[in-house]
Amino acid sequence: MRPSPARTPFIVRLGRSFDARSWLLVGLFAAFALIAVPLMHLLLPPENPLHLSTYFITLTGKILCYAIVAVAMDLIWGYGGILSLGHGLFFALGGYTFGMYLMREIGRDGSYQSDLPDFMVFLDWKELPWFWTGSDHFLWAVLLVLIVPALIAFIFGYFAFRSRIKGVYFSIITQALTYAAMLLFFRNETGFGGNNGFTDFKRILGYSITAPETRVVLFGLSALALIGTLLLARYLVTSKFGRILTAIRDAESRVMFIGYNPLWYKLFVWTLSAMLCAIAGALYVPQVGIINPSEMAVANSIEIAIWVAVGGRGTLIGAVIGAFIVNLAKSWFTVSFPEYWLFFLGTLFIVSTLWLPQGVVGLYRRLQAGRGSAQDSEPAAAPGAAVATAATVAAVAKGAGV
Amino acid sequence: MKPGDRLVTDNPDWDSGTAELGHMFRPGELDLSHKVVLYLDEITVSFDGFRALNKLSLTIDSGELRCIIGPNGAGKTTMMDVITGKTRPDEGKAFFGQTLDLTRLSEPEIAHLGIGRKFQKPTIFENHTVFENLELAMKTDKRVWRSLLALLDSAAGDRIAETLQTIRLTAHADRLAGLLSHGQKQWLEIGMLLMQEPKLLLLDEPVAGMTDEETERTGELFLSLAGKHSLVVVEHDMAFVKQLGGKVTVLHEGSVLAEGVLDEVQADARVIEVYLGR
Ligand SMILES: Nc1ncnc2c1ncn2[C@@H]1O[C@H](COP(=O)(O)OP(=O)(O)OP(=O)(O)O)[C@@H](O)[C@H]1O
Ligand SMILES: [Mg+2]
């Protein structure tokens, strides 16, 4: 960072986070997601080879949401050095908070034709629990999506970081957190539909949720959310804040002795990361049409870490690439060889940590730099650290019985 | 640095001069009214029953350059840990100036009050450039939202350039700090300390791994800092200690064994026995 004139409006500084080439790519991506996809899905007849199917829209829209989660994970893990194995919780909470609204939008069209959501009728509840108050308002739901998971993350993070819990210990307690939440949400009495969760949505803001136009809009919003997430993340990691964050990752005590309190830095990025996951969850649920406690399973959170590891930690774009590679592979495997999926995932993870410590992006950079001349530019990729991370994830995963 | 060069963003009354004007004490600020910058009284630190510090008492005057020597395991580093808030003493008092109780403050709070520290093992940000290392250390508002919006103004840029020159790393400004030589890393850490503009500098074996020429230059730098800053230097290198002059404190088994100018201390029979005569 060289001196630059102060008094630059923030929005301009945000815009400068991407260079011209990145903006070009973003522009192309936006044009594809917001113009080409709707046209190809809505206007072209199914016989046309360029027609995009509903399957394509739903699958890709879903992965766009996962990509947001992956970027959020890369912020906290790749840059902050904090491996969360509970990020699925914040994703699920975003989904649940928005799902409450979708449940209310069903109105009397449920199987019991009641004002209450079906599962409440089934439990013989006569009125909505207090925390469902206002859930029929779209804006209230959006507000809850932004606030509730972030607040939970803030409180949890405050105590964890204040107690200076780090490394494997932090990973384990985040796992415990999501696991405990899953058990809580499995109970019918908790008030979120027990193990069935929320499903059978009918409408969103009065529009049919399965209508092709609605799908296209949700897809476009997911794409915009991903672009926004990347822009914000890029701004953060190139700001002084980002340099402090990586400094905390590399030498926390030095950071303290020059007068920064790591607690607030970690807490900020942790809470922001949770908030981004919640937004992704809220966009995900209307597209897939269901949210249930299995989203909080420990395995889901571990998978998020794997997306980032495969794509390349500490690169942001690698997180997006990783989310796409792993999830496209997953959707292919689960159709063709469902029983081999977990083996494939494990192999992928081991291969990427042992031989591709910087993931796919690192491989690409190495190839670009020309064979064997990877010096000066990439010191972060200590193989030891990668192996240790792999061992951590493996140990933690084993402990959780995944 | 000329006085007019101060960072515009910074607290203008950073220099401790105000405290000396008729003892105008403000809470949370360094009070040097009795010319004492650091006051340790009967500090005891035990690790599993082993006393790393044993009723250690020490007073450093404002502007003083003090050398601390002592055999390995004497407790020199532990003493610095206590002063900077890393280790809490089991017993005893530690005051910064007249009023600031160091045993009740956290590491960042102590750093903020004006105590800077160089670790025994050079600790810099290896994945950041030399320039960025200095940028992060610079005295400024270190709260999160400030860092989120911080832009480097030209005054700050000048200040970093100046420090780069002092530590002779101008040519390496954009290199990753991890690629520097050991001696250069030591200097970078000293540079980071200078950027913090601390009132009290704690330097744990600052010239270890430096060439003779580098060592001598470091000595000159420290001497130029003394007076305006207070320095506590832990060193094994006797030539360096001699160059610095000033008072020397000998630590042994967690307490002060002798204190005085180097020649005096070196002539002390007990010191010769435990330390110099080995
Ligand atoms: N965290 C700790 N746990 C247990 N013992 C410790 C700890 N820190 C220091 N010690 C012990 O306290 C004693 C003093 O250690 P300290 O590092 O302060 O010595 P020192 O004077 O700095 O030595 P050196 O010249 O080798 O740096 C040593 O015996 C050391 O083993
Ligand atoms: Mg020591």
How do you describe this structure in short?
The complex is a heterodimer of chains A (402) and B (278). Chain A is an all-alpha fold.
What order do the helices and strands come in, and which of them pair?
The complex is a heterodimer of chains A (402) and B (278).
Chain A: H1 10-15, H2 20-43, H3 54-79, H4 87-105, H5 118-122, H6 138-162, H7 167-186, E1 198-199, E2 203-204, E3 207-208, H8 212-238, H9 240-257, H10 262-288, E4 290-291, H11 298-311, H12 317-336, H13 341-355, H14 359-369, H15 383-399
Antiparallel strand pairs in A: 1-4, 2-3
Chain B: H1 17-20, E1 36-47, E2 50-61, E3 65-69, H2 76-83, E4 91-96, E5 100-101, H3 107-113, E6 115-118, H4 130-137, H5 144-149, H6 154-166, H7 182-195, E7 200-204, H8 212-225, E8 230-234, H9 238-244, E9 247-252, E10 255-261, H10 262-267, H11 269-276
Parallel strand pairs in B: 3-8, 3-9, 6-7, 7-8
Antiparallel strand pairs in B: 1-2, 1-4, 4-5, 9-10
Helix pairs in contact in B: 4-7, 6-7
The complex binds adenosine-5'-triphosphate and magnesium ion (MG).
Any overview of this molecule?
The complex is a heterodimer of chains A (402) and B (278). In chain A, helix 3 (54-79) runs antiparallel to helix 10 (262-288) and helix 6 (138-162) packs antiparallel against helix 10 (262-288). In chain A, strand 2 and strand 3 (207-208) form a beta hairpin. Chain A is globular. By secondary structure, chain A is an all-alpha fold. Chain A has 15 helices and four strands. Helices cover 68% and strands 2% of the residues of chain A. The model of chain A is unreliable at 374-386 (pLDDT under 50). Chain A has helices at 10-15, 20-43, 54-79, 87-105, 118-122, 138-162, 167-186, 212-238, 240-257, 262-288, 298-311, 317-336, 341-355, 359-369, 383-399; strands spanning 198-199, 203-204, 207-208, 290-291. Chain A has one domain (5-373). By secondary structure, chain B is of the alpha/beta class. Helix content of chain B is 34%, strand content 23%. Chain B contains eleven helices and ten strands. Chain B has helices at residues 17-20, 76-83, 107-113, 130-137, 144-149, 154-166, 182-195, 212-225, 238-244, 262-267, 269-276, and strands spanning 36-47, 50-61, 65-69, 91-96, 100-101, 115-118, 200-204, 230-234, 247-252, 255-261. Chain B has a six-stranded mixed beta sheet, sandwiched between helices. A four-stranded antiparallel beta sheet of chain B has the order 2-1-4-5, with helices on one face. In chain B, helix 8 links the parallel strand 7 (200-204) and strand 8 (230-234). Chain B is globular and about 55 Å long. The interface between A and B is large, with 34 and 40 residues. Magnesium ion (MG) binds next to helix 2 of chain B. Magnesium ion binds next to helix 2 of chain B.
